[in-house]
């Protein structure tokens, strides 16, 4: 691995910010970038001053996927299995108790689109373009497919992964791939406002909300209602517990 950091890390206003800092290669993901990002997220999760997390990309593009040159070198060096720590990164985002927001401009392709989709909220600048072109290269968008299918539904998801076509921000919002589309002029300010708003909420309430939201995946309707009742009771008990008895 290179000694040069792949990320810029900052904490302010209750926000932990991780910025992909390889604009010369459109912030593509190599093993070191994925490892550093996972470490940053772990540190944000453990930091009581961080109440929301923002993942952004430096320059004109959010993330154009995997660094193919680096992947080839790692494969030839016998480290192909480590490249797929990306899957553990996606899982780690979902397991965090804090909301994770992706701020996407320009290209978000393949693993870059997957990284955005793994986040709880996706804020897309109006020039953003999303795509899963792996099939055109004889590959499979394997690790991102689960999140994509849950976000946009079966028909939209299959269309995207089977055609490899690109979708612009407006269509991405329409099919459920992104949460909101923001104008280029207001993008940075609106991202800041939205993430600060998330950071202003109760950390405990947010943790219970996020845990329940993803726990509902795959549950029956009855089990989902039961889980909601259980979570509501736990949250209320925590709210009224004497100081020092809850985290």
What is this structure's SSE topology?
Elements: E1 7-12, E2 15-20, H1 31-46, E3 52-57, H2 68-76, H3 80-83, H4 85-95, E4 100-104, E5 107-109, H5 111-118, E6 121-125, E7 129-131, H6 142-152, H7 154-163, E8 166-168, H8 169-175, E9 180-182, H9 187-199, H10 203-215, H11 221-239
Parallel strand pairs: 2-3, 3-4, 4-6, 5-7, 6-9
Antiparallel strand pairs: 1-2, 7-8
Helix pairs in contact: 1-4, 4-5, 5-6, 6-7, 10-11
Question: How would you portray this structure in words?
Answer:
With 247 residues, this protein is of the alpha/beta class. It has two domains: 193 residues, 2-enoyl-CoA Hydratase, Chain A, domain 1 (Alpha-Beta Complex); 37 residues. It is built from eleven helices and nine strands. Strands 1-2-3-4-6-9 form a six-stranded mixed beta sheet, sandwiched between helices. A three-stranded mixed beta sheet has the order 5-7-8. It is globular and about 55 Å long.
Query: Radius of gyration, Cα only, in angstroms?
Result: 18 Å
From the 3D structure, determine the CATH topology of the largest domain: 2-enoyl-CoA Hydratase, Chain A, domain 1
SSE order: EEHEHHHEEHEEHHEHEHHH
Secondary structure class reads alpha/beta
Molecular shape: globular
- Estimate the mean pLDDT confidence: 88
Count of spatially separate domains: 2
Distance between the termini: 38 Å
Strand arrangement in the largest pleated sheet: 1-2-3-4-6-9
Total helical segments: 11
Proportion of residues in helical segments: 40-55%
- Describe the largest sheet: 6 strands, mixed
Percentage of residues in strands = 15-25%
Residue ranges: pLDDT <50 for 5 or more in a row? 75-80
The CATH homologous superfamily of the largest domain corresponds to 2-enoyl-CoA Hydratase, Chain A, domain 1
So what's the CATH class of the largest domain? Alpha Beta
CATH architecture of the largest domain: Alpha-Beta Complex
> How many beta-strand runs?
9
């Amino acid at each position: 691995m290179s000694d040069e950091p792949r990320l810029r890390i900052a904490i302010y206003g209750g926000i932990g910010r991780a910025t992909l800092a390889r604009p010369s290669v459109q912030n593509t993901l190599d093993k070191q970038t994925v490892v550093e990002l996972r470490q940053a997220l772990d540190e944000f999760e453990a930091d009581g001053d961080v109440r929301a997390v923002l993942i952004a990309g430096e320059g004109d593009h959010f993330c154009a996927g995997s660094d193919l040159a680096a992947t080839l070198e790692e494969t030839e060096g016998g480290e192909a299995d480590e490249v797929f720590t990306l899957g553990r990164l996606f899982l780690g985002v979902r397991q965090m108790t804090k909301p994770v927001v992706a701020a996407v401009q320009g290209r978000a392709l393949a693993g870059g689109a997957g990284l955005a989709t793994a986040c709880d909220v996706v804020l897309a600048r109006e020039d953003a373009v999303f795509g899963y072109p792996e099939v055109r290269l004889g590959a499979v968008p394997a690790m991102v497919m689960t999140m994509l299918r849950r976000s946009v539904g079966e028909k939209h998801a299959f269309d995207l992964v089977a055609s490899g076509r690109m979708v612009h921000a407006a269509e991405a919002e329409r099919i459920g791939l992104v949460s909101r589309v923001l104008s280029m002029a207001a993008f940075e300010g609106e991202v800041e406002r939205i993430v600060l708003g998330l950071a202003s909420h109760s950390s405990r309430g947010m943790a219970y909300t996020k845990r329940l939201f993803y726990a509902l995946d795959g549950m029956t309707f009855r089990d989902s209602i039961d889980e909601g009742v259980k979570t509501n009771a736990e949250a209320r008990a925590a709210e009224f517990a004497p100081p020092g008895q809850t985290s």
